[in-house]
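Let us practice reading a record.
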Amino acid sequence: MMKWMLNIFRRRLPTSYRQRSFPFNPWLIRYGNDDRELIEFFLKMFADAFLIKHGQIFFLCPDDKPIDIYHAFCRFLPVDTLELEIFVKEMQRHYAVSIDSKQLKDLTLGQCYEISRKLANNSMHPTPPLINRSVV
């Protein structure tokens, strides 16, 4: 029930992102098809932090910066960076990544993904489960 209610408040990506004609391909070109499920998990985690509809994650590219996406959503709203802070907390929870929202402002989604994979591969922290896993 709670997940259904949360989905009501999910947003669509700004038009500039949704008009891209190559959904998900940049991720597969850069990281390969073997990482597809890991990439989807990572992007869903990002979408949950920003309350983006999960079907929209495929329009995001590795070179997109979370701060730019945040500013595209919040052009006319007061800036509080809550979405960035939630994303940082989720990265800490799922990947044991210790970055803060100030560092995140300089990183792209691809760099965040690479950091999360590198730390998951080099530590005893488990890789997030991929089957029937909801990040809410």
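A brief commentary: Residues 129-136 have pLDDT under 50 and may be disordered.
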